[in-house]
């Protein structure tokens, strides 16, 4: 689940955290100041914790990871690991992850498979690319129609209209029925798609690709080591990419050291590339065994984070699913269905202690989730270090491990208690 630019251009706003070539004035869906991180429609991580104190960051295009790590180096795990412990920042290779965790820690992982969710089509005489986002309970799909751009990439296109017939390969077609959300400018539409949809994607689809990548990649490049088939063929339109650097050997080493794994799934939809909207509702399930394990680890440590296992989500998708299953009392219960939860500093996190995630774009709504876990000052320092040390962004890039500040008297740092 990413808020990232597929193909975009525009001017940057001065004094605002921004990505080179990306618009900084289009978040639009945040409430100004309501969650302490969104002001005037842009993401601001202010020094000293004040929402009116933006930090002028610019992520150069050169820091986009254009190919998978195994094509740049020796393997999937050949990426860098930025570690934030409160406001303290350190730099590591991802292969050093076992040394950053401890016995009894629980890594909560998303087992959703990535689908070949991009399919060529036509609306009348217009060529389009259909991005299949989410499969509904009634068999319909939420889809986004995109305009073909350069080789393998797409650009935005007006949504709809209702009743439009999209011709697909193999003589099939889908019909746009109604928008998700307000009809004016709706990006995603419910469409009646040919069944079985997963077979159509397997035969004619390809992974959704973004403009910063160098070339097309096989679907296997977008699967994580934790991916497992869904009985109904559902999956994620976009890779749960925080888990991408894990290898079977690294998982085995973590288990050997006493780190626990707790599976769940959340099927990610298509990210809002140009407007950086909060995520739409997504299907998820937290099984009983995962709920039990998380509750047991939290109960065993009591209130002392320093002496027991920590619950560390692998990716923002795992946070969204696990927090959706957590009650006001902080107890996780088996749950499934659809979640519309958006984790913000105001809402806070109830069960997640830490997070392993990629590096997110300046306008991404996920930064509010990171702020809820880490605290604003810790997040600001981590991203300044990532830029200074030239970490790589996006799904094939480097990763960021956010751990709780267990020294509660650490100066000048927001804790992750909300």
Summarize the structure.
This protein has 418 residues and is an alpha+beta fold.
Number of separate strands: 20
| SSE class | alpha+beta
Radius of gyration: 21 Å
The CA-CA distance between the termini, in Å, is 24 Å
Strand content: 15-25%
Shape: globular
Main sheet attributes: strand count, strand direction, barrel closure = 9 strands, mixed
Describe the structure.
- This protein has 418 residues and is α+β, with helices and mostly antiparallel strands.
- Helices cover 17% and strands 23% of the residues.
- It is built from 8 helices and 20 strands.
- It has helices at 69-72, 97-100, 197-204, 248-256, 288-301, 316-324, 366-374, 376-388, and strands at residues 18-19, 38-39, 42-43, 58-59, 80-85, 88-93, 106-110, 118-123, 126-135, 141-148, 154-155, 165-167, 173-179, 189-192, 260-266, 282-286, 311-314, 335-339, 354-358, 399-403.
- It has a 9-stranded mixed sheet. Strands 8, 9, 10, 11, 12, 13 and 14 form a 7-stranded antiparallel sheet that branches. The protein has a two-stranded parallel sheet with strand order 1-4.
- The longest helix has 14 residues, at 288-301.
- The model is unreliable at 1-56 (pLDDT under 50).
Produce the secondary structure layout.
Layout (H helix, E strand, L loop, with lengths): L17 E2 L18 E2 L2 E2 L14 E2 L9 H4 L7 E6 L2 E6 L3 H4 L5 E5 L7 E6 L2 E10 L5 E8 L5 E2 L9 E3 L5 E7 L9 E4 L4 H8 L43 H9 L3 E7 L15 E5 L1 H14 L9 E4 L1 H9 L10 E5 L14 E5 L7 H9 L1 H13 L10 E5 L15
Parallel strand pairs: 1-4, 5-20, 7-15, 7-17, 17-19
Antiparallel strand pairs: 2-3, 5-6, 8-9, 9-10, 10-11, 10-14, 12-13, 13-14, 15-16, 16-18, 19-20
Helix pairs in contact: 7-8
């Amino acid at each position: 689940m990413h808020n990232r630019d597929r193909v975009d251009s525009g001017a940057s706003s001065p004094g605002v955290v921004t990505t080179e070539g990306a618009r900084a004035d289009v978040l639009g869906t945040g409430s100004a100041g309501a969650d302490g991180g969104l002001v005037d429609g842009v993401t601001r991580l202010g020094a000293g914790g004040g929402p009116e104190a933006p930090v002028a960051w610019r992520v150069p295009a050169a820091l986009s990871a254009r190919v998978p790590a195994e094509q740049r180096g020796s393997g999937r795990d050949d990426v860098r690991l930025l570690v934030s412990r409160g406001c303290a920042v350190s730099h590591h290779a991802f292969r050093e992850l076992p040394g950053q965790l401890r016995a009894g820690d629980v890594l909560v992982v998303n087992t959703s498979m990535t689908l070949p969710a991009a399919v060529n089509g036509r609306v009348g005489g217009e060529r389009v690319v259909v991005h299949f986002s989410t499969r509904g309970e009634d068999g319909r799909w939420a889809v986004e129609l995109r305009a073909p751009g350069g080789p393998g990439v797409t650009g935005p296109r007006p949504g709809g209209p209702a009743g439009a017939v999209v011709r697909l390969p193999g003589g099939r077609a889908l019909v746009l029925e109604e928008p998700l959300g307000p009809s004016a400018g709706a990006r995603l539409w419910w469409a009646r798609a040919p069944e079985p949809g997963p077979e159509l994607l397997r035969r004619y689809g390809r992974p959704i690709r973004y403009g910063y990548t160098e070339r097309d990649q096989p679907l296997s490049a977008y699967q994580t080591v934790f991916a497992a088939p869904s009985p109904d063929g559902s999956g994620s339109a976009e890779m749960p990419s925080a888990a991408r650097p894990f290898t079977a050997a690294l998982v085995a080493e973590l288990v050997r050291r006493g780190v626990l794994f707790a599976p769940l799934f959340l099927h990610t939809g298509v990210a809002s590339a140009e407007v950086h909207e909060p995520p739409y509702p997504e299907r998820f399930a937290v099984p009983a065994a995962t709920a039990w394990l998380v509750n047991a680890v939290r109960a065993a440590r009591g209130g002392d984070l320093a002496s027991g296992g920590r619950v560390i989500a692998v990716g923002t998708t795992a946070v969204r699913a696990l927090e959706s299953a957590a009650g006001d009392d902080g107890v996780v219960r088996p749950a499934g269905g659809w979640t519309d939860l958006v984790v913000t500093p105001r809402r806070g996190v109830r069960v997640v202690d830490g997070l392993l995630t990629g590096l997110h774009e300046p306008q991404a709504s996920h930064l509010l989730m990171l702020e809820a876990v880490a605290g604003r000052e810790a997040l600001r320092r981590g991203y300044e270090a990532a830029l200074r040390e030239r970490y790589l962004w996006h799904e094939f890039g480097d990763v960021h491990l956010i751990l709780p500040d267990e020294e509660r008297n650490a100066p000048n740092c927001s804790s992750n208690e909300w």
